[in-house]
Design a protein that fits this description.
The chain is mostly helical. The chain has 7 helices and 2 strands. Helix 2 packs antiparallel against helix 7.
């Protein structure tokens, strides 16, 4: 999932809107549980609507139910709200267009803020949701840096 988020530059490919890394949203919910509540099962009446609007997820452009596959070229970053709305429809059936991917260098979904916050506030890793995102984030970003270093060296 994270690789698709990064590839698409944390842009909702169905709206063009910027999305925020889920770990960052969860930190905000930890810091402000009353103002920005999170619910494990995303209950609409218990979870802040921004979770639905800003949290990225992966969607199949051509749904599996309609013959799609799990290959990266059939996967896009979108918000939970748009993913739920699209369901098993085709983009044409909804009158939707596919927006171009964003540029991770210009908008990182606040993923670098997430890393800095966690590294300066290690106790936040007591939250399993945050801890479960931290390791893959470090892995993906380290791989990106290594690839960038190889590209620059040649």
């Amino acid at each position: 999932m994270l690789q698709i988020f990064v590839r698409d530059g944390f842009i909702d490919r169905y709206t063009g809107n910027k999305l925020i890394f889920p770990g960052t949203l969860r930190i905000l919910s930890e810091l402000m549980p009353q103002e920005f509540p999170y619910h494990l099962n995303w209950k609409m009446d218990a979870c802040h609507i921004a979770w639905w609007q800003l949290s990225p997820t992966i969607d199949h452009i051509l749904p599996i139910a309609r013959g799609g596959n799990n290959e990266p070229d059939n996967l896009v970053c979108t918000s939970m709200l748009k993913n739920k709305t699209k369901d098993n429809f085709l983009l044409d059936e909804l009158g939707w267009n596919l927006f171009p991917a964003g540029d991770f260098e210009k908008w990182d979904g606040l993923i670098n803020w997430f890393i800095k916050y966690v590294e300066n506030n290690r106790s936040i890793l007591n939250c399993n949701y945050i801890a479960n995102w931290y390791k893959p984030v470090k892995h993906v970003l380290n791989n990106m840096r290594r690839l960038s270093d190889i590209y620059i060296a040649h």
